[in-house]
Each structure stands twice: as C-alpha cells, then as structure tokens.
Design brief:
By secondary structure, this protein is an alpha+beta fold. 66% of the residues lie in helices and 12% in strands. The chain has a five-stranded mixed beta sheet with strand order 1-2-5-3-4.
C-alpha cells in the first residue's frame, strides 16, 4: 500500500515539474517573440529611412548632372561667341590696310569683349555654386520628418522649396499652423543669410472648387496662402519685405494628375522660389562692350 502511495506521489510530482517547465518555456518563447518583433519593426524603419535617404541622394546627383550639362552648354556657347569675335578680328586684320583701322584699337576691343565673357562665366559659375550651397545647407538643417513634406531642388539656376499644404496650413484655411513654425524658421534663416537673392512665395491648389466666406475660388485661396507665408516670414522671422513677393496660381500649375487623391495632394503646395537679383545681371548687360553686343 505504501509503495502504491509513493509511486502515485512521484508521478504527480513529475507531471507538476513537467507542467512548470512547459509554462516557463512558453513564457520564454513569448518574450523572445516580442523581442524579435520589435527588432523586425526597428529594422524596417531603419530600412525605410535609408531608402528615403538614398532616393534623396540619387535625386541630388541627377540635379547635379543636369546642372553640369547646363554649365557645359553655357561654356560651349561662350566658346562659339569667342570664335565669332576672333573671326571678326581676323577679317578686320585682313582689311586693315584698306580701311586704315587701328590694330591696337581692335585688339583692345577684343580684349574687352573676352574680359566681359570671362566675367559672365565667372558670375554664372558663382551663382550656380551658391545655389548648390544654399540647397545643401537647407537640406541639412531639415529633419528626416520635415524632408518627407519639404522638397528642395535647384533647376536652371533657381532654388525651389516646395511645402505640402497640410504641413503649412490649418485644414481648408490659409492660416499658418503651429507645426509649420520650426520649418519656416529654418527656411527664414537661409533666406536671411543669402541677402543677394529675391524670394517669391507661390501658392498652388488642386482643381476641387472652393467657396467660403472671403474665399471665392482657388485663385483667392492660393493668393491668400502665399500672402500668409510672406507675412509670417516678415513679422515673425524678420525677413526684409522688400525681398519678398506673394503670388497665387490657383489650380493652373499642376505637377500631378488631379484625378487621384495622391495627385491632388501633390498639387496642393506652396513654393518658395529663391532667385538671384535680376538687377545685377542687367547691370552686367549694360556694361558689355559695344562690339560684343553686335
């Protein structure tokens, strides 16, 4: 009888120990699964961030290649202009004896023209370099989250900063929201640092009609939004208002198809367009030697 009781007790003990061990293993598995799930999610986020960064770098590389192509075309044109001037000099030298043209004067004119061309090339190169530096400084100052809603590009010597409407404004409104302040402050600092540039704020909408109090249509909305950004840059961040221009293009400057929700979202944007002051280039044109203009 005692043997039976002892055997029964031992079997019960083994079952209990086995049950405890299984529960502990199960808990360990659950814990490890949670850790692995967290690691997978973190890895996915890191991968997404890396892919976004790679896409941004590829886009910047493409822009740099386009800029290099434009510079090459510009320099090639200057070489052609120089060849034409040289040809003009050769003809003048051939006819010098007949027309009593002063060789020294012709040489001075050619030298003046060449100096003017070199100056134009230097100014263009300097402007392109400053634009790239401006773009890089702004891109580096923006956080990864901001870069998802802010697009910075350099196209044909002009810096374009495109901001999504849901980042800038309250829904269906032209009032600046609090979330936009940090981004606008960074853009304002760049604008303030580059004093030789003019700034155009351009509002754009999708093609969905709007009619609210004091907003008759998308023309009104795009202009009011641009004006809000201009006044924010002036009053809150101290940007010189003489450098600022506000304009709206309504729904008539789309960059995507308005037939989809994604396309509409891309079209609802405000662009900050930074350009060199045109009066400086007009001064250069006025300083051109007379023979260089002919």
């Amino acid at each position: 009888m005692n043997r039976n009781i002892l055997a029964t007790t031992m079997v019960g003990t083994l079952v209990l120990l086995s049950s405890c061990a299984s529960k502990k293993q199960l808990q360990n598995c659950i814990f490890e699964n949670k850790e692995l799930t967290g690691t997978v999610m973190s890895t996915k986020e890191q991968l997404a961030t890396a892919q976004a960064r790679v896409a941004s770098l590829e886009e910047q590389l493409a822009q740099q290649r386009e800029l290099n192509t434009q510079q090459k075309e510009y320099i090639d044109q200057q070489k052609k202009d120089y060849a034409l001037l040289q040809n003009s000099l050769d003809k003048s030298l051939n006819n010098a004896s007949q027309n009593n043209v002063s060789i020294e004067k012709l040489v001075d004119q050619i030298n003046a023209s060449n100096q003017y061309i070199r100056h134009l090339v230097d100014v263009k190169t300097k402007s392109d370099s400053l634009n790239l530096v401006l773009q890089n400084n702004l891109t580096r100052s923006l956080s990864k989250e901001e870069l998802k809603e802010v697009d910075v590009q350099v196209l044909k010597g002009v810096v374009y900063i495109s901001l999504a409407d849901n980042m800038l404004y309250r829904s269906g409104s032209y009032e600046i929201n609090d979330r936009a302040q940090e981004t606008l402050s960074k853009i304002a600092k760049i604008i303030t640092d580059y004093k030789d540039y003019d700034v155009l704020i351009e509002g754009n909408t999708d093609d969905v009609p709007i009619s609210r109090e004091n907003i008759r249509n998308n023309w009104d909305l795009s202009c009011l939004r641009a004006s809000s950004v201009v006044q924010e840059l002036q009053t809150r961040y101290g940007v010189d208002p003489k450098r600022l221009t506000a304009g709206g293009r309504g729904e008539y400057n789309p960059i995507a198809d308005n037939s989809t929700a994604v396309g509409k979202q891309r079209n609802r944007r405000t662009q900050i367009i930074i350009t060199p002051k045109l009066d400086e280039f007009m001064d250069l044109i006025e300083q051109a030697p007379e023979d260089a203009e002919k």
